[in-house]
Structure prediction request, 148 residues.
Amino acid sequence: MVAFAQLHAQNHKITELSNVFLYLVRDRSMCDTEVACDVFFDLTNRIREHMELVDRELCGQLISHPDQEVKNIANRFLSGSSEIKRIFSSYVKEWCSKKQHQLTIRDHEIFLRETEQMLGLVMDRIQRETEHLYPLIRRLDVQDKEVA
Prediction:
């Protein structure tokens, strides 16, 4: 199983990069800089990696748990993850060119609004993981150790 320290480190880095990226892109002239693009691509890669890790390692473990309530929680997280990934993929496709490693902003106001919404979804997801998923995993691990 994945260490919680690794998950928290990922969450911290995603939060930090999100804040930096939002700070940079509020100024339209910063959107076309190499630095903003590097932050954007680093951030989007880290978000994808983190969500895949949580889905595979944590939710994958919970989905096979005998308790139906635990399975339901895992299913809700997986369902939410699928929706965020769909929205995230559409967002990335709309606002960047991976091939050219650049942002493709036609309307800065719309880009900024969608960026704030997208990163808000990611931050909400991280908060739900921290407040609900991680404590559930810890509780189940303690119960398993007590039974053994």
In short: The radius of gyration is 17 Å. The helical segments are 4-25, 34-63, 68-95, 108-147. The chain has a mean pLDDT of 93.
